[in-house]
Amino acid sequence: MEKSIEMQEVQGRIDHLSIDVKGGRLFVSALGNNTLEVIDVKSGKRVKTISQLQEPQGVLYVAESDRIYVANGDGSVRILDGSSYAPLKRLDYGDDADNLRYGGGRKRIYVGFGSGALGEIDSDGNKVTDIKLDAHPESFQLEKDSPRIYVNLPKSRKVVVVDREKRAIIATWKTDMAFANYPMALDEGNHRLFVVTRMPARLLVFDTNNGNIVQKLPAVGDCDDVFYDKSRKRIYASGGDGAISVFEQKDADHYAELARISTVKGARTSYFSADLDRFFLAVRRQGSQPAAIEVFVPAQ
């Protein structure tokens, strides 16, 4: 571990994170604290706390517009100015606004929400449409070179493929007796999708050409975030069981767990920035030990 950045007074569960690469800022959804925490990565200090949120679950920084999008448990997406942090707009989705992603080609923001839908937002912060699903979406990933969106639907025990131009489901893939599929990462170049399940704790490797599972491996339990490191051909999965599983991609069809790094019980959300070459792990407050962001430098 390179360093630990304390977040004094932050209570309760910490959810997802996002990065401003140019500005060197990490945005942290402090769900249990009803705040968004802003960390200066270089100095290792918290520089801003944004309050008056309601269980922030997902956060997305869009560099092109210098805007911050925060998805909340009350169903709202709050849009903030990236420089002043001033509130710009609020969009209401009814319930459980969660993960956020940006599709750069069409400059669209997508949010998973409610009992089953992806909301599409334009670059001006206006609702465009909703793509209906049959269960609440957890992590989802957008391909850059195609209109495909891959979506985890743990309550209906499957992964669906959405065409974001047709705004329709075009394929459904079963998770093969592995359930609670929350986090997801994508290796678009090799046509591989990585899904980590909790029941049992497994890494599933899907071939995105046909939806077949090419390999299954044991993984850290209670996983909520997974990332693909393209330069090292590795996969990083953080789990609430208190570890980071590091997998090696030998080739598109063969993987092995390279290491399991001990962390802190309950630390299940994280963020890997390829641009900064850093892995950020969110650690909630434990007794007298304050909440923190632990910063790791991946081994060469």
Give an account of the 3D structure.
The chain is mainly beta and 300 residues long. The chain has no helices and 28 strands. It has strands spanning 3-7, 17-20, 25-30, 35-40, 45-50, 56-62, 67-72, 76-81, 87-92, 100-103, 108-113, 117-121, 127-132, 140-142, 148-153, 158-163, 168-174, 179-187, 192-199, 201-207, 213-218, 223-229, 234-239, 243-251, 254-262, 270-273, 278-283, 291-296. The strands form 7 sheets. The chain has a 4-stranded antiparallel beta sheet, with no helix packed on it.
Which regions are unreliable across 5 or more consecutive residues at pLDDT < 50? none
Query: What is the rounded Rg?
Result: 18 Å
**What shape does the CA trace take?**
globular
User: How many β-strand stretches?
Assistant: 28
Number of helices: 0
Structural class: mainly beta
Helix content: under 10%
Distance between the termini: 14 Å
Give the helices and strands as they follow along the chain.
Answer: EEEEEEEEEEEEEEEEEEEEEEEEEEEE
Beta-strand fraction estimate: over 45%
Average pLDDT figure: 97
Q: How would a crystallographer describe the biggest sheet?
A: 4 strands, antiparallel
Sheet with most strands: strand arrangement:
1-28-27-26
Label this structure with key terms.
single chain; 300 residues; mainly beta; four-stranded antiparallel sheet; globular
What topology does this entry show?
Elements: E1 3-7, E2 17-20, E3 25-30, E4 35-40, E5 45-50, E6 56-62, E7 67-72, E8 76-81, E9 87-92, E10 100-103, E11 108-113, E12 117-121, E13 127-132, E14 140-142, E15 148-153, E16 158-163, E17 168-174, E18 179-187, E19 192-199, E20 201-207, E21 213-218, E22 223-229, E23 234-239, E24 243-251, E25 254-262, E26 270-273, E27 278-283, E28 291-296
Antiparallel strand pairs: 1-28, 2-3, 3-4, 4-5, 6-7, 7-8, 8-9, 10-11, 11-12, 12-13, 14-15, 15-16, 16-17, 18-19, 19-20, 20-21, 22-23, 23-24, 24-25, 26-27, 27-28
